[in-house]
Amino acid sequence: xxxxLWFLALFGTAVAVAVFAxxxxxxxxxxxxxxxxxxxLNFVILTLVFxxxxxxxxxxxxxxxxxxxxQAKRWRALQKERAINAELFNAQSHFLxxxxxxxxxxxxxxxxxxxxxxxxxxxxxxxVGNEPQLRAxxxxxxxxxxxxxxxxxxxxxxxxxxxxxxxLRASLDTKEGAQLLAASWALDxxxxxxxxxxxxxxxxxxxxxTVALRLKLKAAQLANSTAEALETTRLLAKHHAFSKDAAPSxxxxxxxxQIDDARDASQLQATWRGLDANxxxxxxxxxxxxxxxxxxxxxxxxxTDWLLPVWxxxxxxxxxxxxxxxxxxxxxxxxLEAILGEQTETKDTAWLARIEKAQLANPRDARLQYLxxxxxxxxxxxxxxxxxxxxxxxxxxxxxxxRRAWCALAExxxxxxxxxxxxxxxxxxxxx
Length: 432
Fold this sequence. Notes:
This protein is an all-alpha fold. The chain has a domain at 368-432: Serine Threonine Protein Phosphatase 5, Tetratricopeptide repeat. Helices cover 76% and strands 3% of the residues. The protein contains 22 helices and two strands. It has helices at residues 2-22, 41-96, 100-120, 124-127, 131-148, 152-164, 172-188, 192-200, 204-207, 210-222, 226-238, 246-260, 265-273, 277-280, 283-295, 300-316, 326-342, 350-361, 366-378, 382-392, 399-415, 419-431, and strands at 27-32, 35-40. The chain has a two-stranded antiparallel sheet with strand order 1-2. Strand 1 and strand 2 (35-40) form a beta hairpin. Helix 15 packs antiparallel against helix 16 and helix 15 crosses helix 17 (326-342).
């Protein structure tokens, strides 16, 4: 279609020229005393057109001739750039293959080529736009190889030069990448404050990237900053940086560690208030927090408030108590023992009713039977406590609970004046 239009235009032009020039009898007269020259108008027009074309061609030829030195400079600069790129590719390939000495040598060769280009062509930056970025990348590769070779001094020197060569023409990603690498190297050196310093220099957007958050998590864990590690882990979970099973498990482990880090009851309460509602409803978290608060001699009412929602959730579902970890189950029993011991004077039977209901729903659980016996003993239900503890003691697998069960049976026997039964129970407790 385009060719047809060009042919139509050409034919139209030929027709117009034929119509105009074929019947054009006009002349152009030039007077140059004492001469007179008569020229055809068609000849004058053709002469002007050809003269313009000749002058334009001469000017273009002169311009190209004068541009040859600059083109030669550009060609040499591009050749140098290709050589630098080749050395950078070699450095990257050697680094990935674990040949760190060769990688470092290729990176230094690229820097040497760049330096020679700079001396031979002072205006090379004007010819090749990505020159600062190439130089920075060469320094970064040299720094990576030096870090792998444990040459800290050379690594820091190349990193400093890589950041110094950054300017408005260089890529911002190169600078951010160098800072992330510096943070990673600081973590390899077990220097958490240095890693935090490099991460703090990142722009806001770069600091929220997954790679930066992972480095921040490692730095927080290295510095034993559980609160920061927990916050970073939540952000990573939102970014889907972990699998569906790994994220909740990691968050729960950090929450438990944060609870363990509490040094007094007030600090533990502040930690509890800082947790999410979903974290507070997790059985492992609530049981461990209540156990820790009881160890730190916190208020019994506070312990009950933390434990009651989880207890109701576990006992309302079939086999809920059996689904929790054995260590948490033991902590739950010890915590409830402490609550029942504090409620001896008040005679609050609410927990006794809850425990008996749970024990009736799961009569084969020796741990729950032991807890029911302790609850009856704390409320002076001696006969029922004797029955429950006698049935639970032989079947308990936890040595501490088994010992405590026999001690409770010995106390009950002494209370009713049965010295033989008391001695046998004390002997069984001592043998564990």
